[in-house]
Design goal:
The structure holds 2 protein chains of 2 kinds. Chain A is α+β, with helices and mostly antiparallel strands. Chain A folds into 2 domains: about 250 residues, no CATH class; about 120 residues, no CATH class. Chain A is built from 17 helices and 16 strands. In chain A, strand 5 and strand 6 form a beta hairpin. The radius of gyration of chain A is 23 Å and the shape is globular. The relative contact order of chain B is 0.13. Chain B contains 16 helices and 14 strands. In chain B, strands 6, 7, 8, 9, 12, 13 and 14 form a 7-stranded mixed β-sheet that branches. Chain B is flat, with a radius of gyration of 23 Å. Classes of the chains: A alpha+beta, B alpha/beta. At the A-B interface, helix 1, strand 1, helix 3, helix 9 and strand 10 of A face strand 3, helix 4, helix 5, helix 6 and helix 10 of B.
Amino acid sequence: MGKKKTIMVILLLAAAVISSSERPLSAETGSKQTLWVFNPSGESDSFPGVFVDDVIKNVMVTQHLSGPPLAAQFPHQRIEIIEAEAPFEAVNELFYKRGWTDGLPIIPPTLERVKEMLRGTDRFSTELVGIIEPMKGKATVEKIAINAVMAGARPEYLPVIIAAVETIADPDFDLYGVQTTDESVTPLLIINGPVVKDLNINYGFGALGPGWQSGPNATIGRAVRLVINNIGGAWPGTISLSGIGQPGKYTLCLAENEGANPWKPLHVELGYDKESSTVTALRTESVYNVFGEDLAELASVMGSLGSRMSAARGAGCVGVLLGPYTAKALAAKGWTKEDVKRYLWEHGRIPLSEWKTQSLIGTTVPEWAKQYADKGSIPVVAKPEDIVLFVAGAGLPIPQHVYFPTWVQNVGPGKVTKEVKIPANWKKIIEQGKE
Amino acid sequence: MVDAKPFFSDSKSSAAGAGVPDLQIVALSVAATDGLPKADLERVAKGSVREIVDGLTKAASTVTAPQAPSQPKRAEVLSYTGKDYAEAIANMEKFFLTNRWGDGLPIIPPTEEAVEEMLKGTDLPRDQVVGIVDPKKGIGTVEKIAINAVMAGARPAYMPVIMTAVQALTDPAFDLYGVQCTGGLTAPLLILSGPIIKDLDVNFSYSTAGPGWWANSTIGRAIRLILINLGQAWPGINDMKDVGNPAKVGILIAENEVQTPSGWPSLREQEGQGKDVSTVSVYASLSYRQIGCIYGDPIDYIAGEMKTALNSQADQWGEEVVVVFSPTNAEIVAKNGYTPDKIRQALFEKGRVTRKYFGPRPLGTVAIAHAIPKWIDDLPDDGLVPTVPKVEDIKVFVAGGRGPGCGFFIDRWGFGQSHFLTREIKLPPNWNDLLKDLQGWETPVEVK
C-alpha cells in the first residue's frame, strides 16, 4: 500500500518551475528573455512577396468579415524577435491573435526547434512541396517544419508530415472545396508501412485520440491542420465557413494495424511495395461509431443519409475501419477484402423512400444511380473499390468498427496516397529520436 | 474478482484505484463478460472454477479502504533547468511525457506564477475539493484543476466553467467511471449556454465544434487533461476504447442564441434554469452525425439518423440524445411551426426502430441488457421502440453558423447509466475584473 501511495502522489502533482541555469524564472526577477521565432504563415503563390494573411485581411476589410484581432499584423520577414518575461506564453498569445493557431498551445517555432525539426529530412528547406488552397500559400519544407514544431511534432515525424501535405495539396483531394464548403470536412490520414513501427504510430487503443500514447498521431494530424490553417489561410469563421466544425478538425490520423489485417494492407492493395511507407488521405465528414457482430450493422450505417454526398454524385470514396476481431473472423470464413467491400456496397444502400424525401439534389434519383434505383435503393459509392477498407484497433474481442462518410463536390476522388520519402540517414534519425 | 481476459489490465488498474492493489483477479477465457448469455457465462466460469477457488482461499488480498481525502496535499513544485528558457521547457516536456502527464500535444508550463494567476479565476480556497475523478479517484481540488487549466492554455476567467464542468462530470449520474474505461468510443462533450458565452468570447457560430477559438479549444482540453492527469485514464491500460475518438481532444459547443428562432427557449431554460444564468451541460457523446439536409424536412432527416444510430447500437438505449440545429435548419422548421417541444415530440414518434434490433429474446439472458426495460423485451419483433425513454430526453438547441449542411445528431453512450447533466455556473465576485484580462483577445464571431 505504501508503494502505491507514493505513485499516486507523484502522478498527481503537476506544478513546475521553469528556470534557466542561473536563476529561476519568476515574476520578481523581471528579466526579459528573447526568442527568435520563424513565421509560420504561407507566402502567396499568386502574389509574390505577399503573405496569405494580407490577402485574407483585404477580404476581411472589403467584405466586412470578422477575423483574428491581429490579422496580418506582423513583421513581413522570415524571422521575428520576441522579448518577454515569459516568451513561451507571449508567442502563444501573439500567434493566436494573428490567427496562426487552432486555439490550443503551440511550441514557439524558434531557430533551434526548427533547425532540429529539419534534421528529420534531407530535402532542401526551400523545396516547394505543394500549394495549399484556398489562399494558395507555398508549402516549402521550411514552412512545413515550422508548423510541425508548433504542433508539437518530433523531427522524425517530418517525412510523414511532408507526405501528408503532398496528399492534401494534390488536386484530387480538392482542398479548395474542403476548406470553403459549409459542411465539416477534414482529412483522415491513414499511415502504412515500416514507418508505423519506426515512429510508434498508434493503430490500437486511443489511435483516433487522445493520449500520451498517441503523440505521433496527435501531432502529425495537428501539423497538417496548422499547415492548412496557416499556409493555406483557411481561417475558421472568416474563410472556412464550415457551419459547425467537427472534432476531427484538430487532428485525425492513425496507422493501419497491418499485423491484424488478414488481407493485403492498404498500401499494398493500392500498388505500393510492402516495404514502402505511405500516407493515404481521405476527405472525411465524420467519424461514426459502429458496433456489430456481423457486417449487417456496418452496412445499415453506411446506407444512411450520412452517405448522401457520395451517393448524390456517384463519386468520392468512403472509409471503413474494420476491427481486428471481425476482420479475423471474416477471413477465417474465407471472405476476401474484395468480398467484404462488395457485401458492404451491395447491402449498405440508401433506401429510395428515404432518398426521395431527403435528397441533396432534390427528389430525383441521380443519373448514375438510375440502374440501381429500380431495385429500391442507391449505392453510397459508384463501385465497391471506392470503399477504402483498412484494419485498426487494439484487437479487443469486440466488433468495434468506424465508418467515415465523405464529402464530394465536383472534383477529385478525395482519396490520395503518397509515398513517404525516407531520408538517407533514417536509422540515425530514429535512434536520435528514441533518446 | 472475475473478468474477461482482454480486460485484465483494466481490472488490475481498477482494483489498485479502489485501494486493493493485490486483489486476486481471475481472467476468464472469453471476449467479454457483457453480452454473453448467462448459460455461456456459467459454462466458462465452471471451466475456471479452480482459479476462482484459489483466488478466494489463497493469498488473501490486503484490503485497505481508500483513504479519505482529509487534507488534500498541496501540489509539489518541480524544477527544470536548461541553458536557456527553450531548453528548460524541452526538459519539462520530456519529464511530463515519461510520467504520462498530458495528451500528446504541447502544454503551457504550469509554473507557480501561472497557477497563482489561474487561481484568480475563483474565490474558492485552493484546497477545496470540486470532484473526485474516476477511475483512479484523483482528488480534483481547485488547485489541481487550475494546474491542468494552465497546461491546457486556458485563461483565469475560464475557471468557473471548467470547475462547474468537473462538478457535473464527477456526479455519479454521469458515470464517469464507465465513460473513462469503457471499450465504447465515447467522449465527454461540453455544451455552454447563457450570457457567459459572450463574456468569454466563446465561439457559438462557424466551427464551434472545431478548432480556432481559444475559449472553446482550451476549456475542452482542460477537461481532457483533468480526466487524464487526475482520473488517470490511459488508453490501453484502463481506457479500453479500441480505436479512440477524435472528440476526446476536448470539445466545447456553445449555444447560438443570437440566431435561435424567436419563441424557442434556450437550452438552459429547457433544462429548468433561469434565463439570466449561464450553464454548462455534459454529455457522453459517441458519433457526430452531420445533418446535411438541403431539401426536405430536417425532422425526417434527423429521425432517419436516429434510427440508423439505434440500429447500430440498440444496447445503449436508455439515456438522452442531442440534436444540434444549424440556424438555417432551425429557421426552416420554425417556419413549419416547430418549437423544441414539438421537435422532441415529432422525433420521439418518428425516430423509432423495431424490437428485433435489440437482440434475441428474452433480453434478460444477456448480461449487457440490464438497462433495457421489460416492456421493450415483451414487444413483438416488429413492435416499435422510440430512441429514448421519455420525450424530454431529446435535447434540442441551435449552434454553429448558417448553412443547410450543418448541425449534428450526436448519439450517446451509456447503457442507461450516463446522463446528460446541466449545472449552473457560479461566478466569482471579481468577475468583471477577470473579464478585463480577455480584452484584446476577442475574435469576433460572424453572425450573418
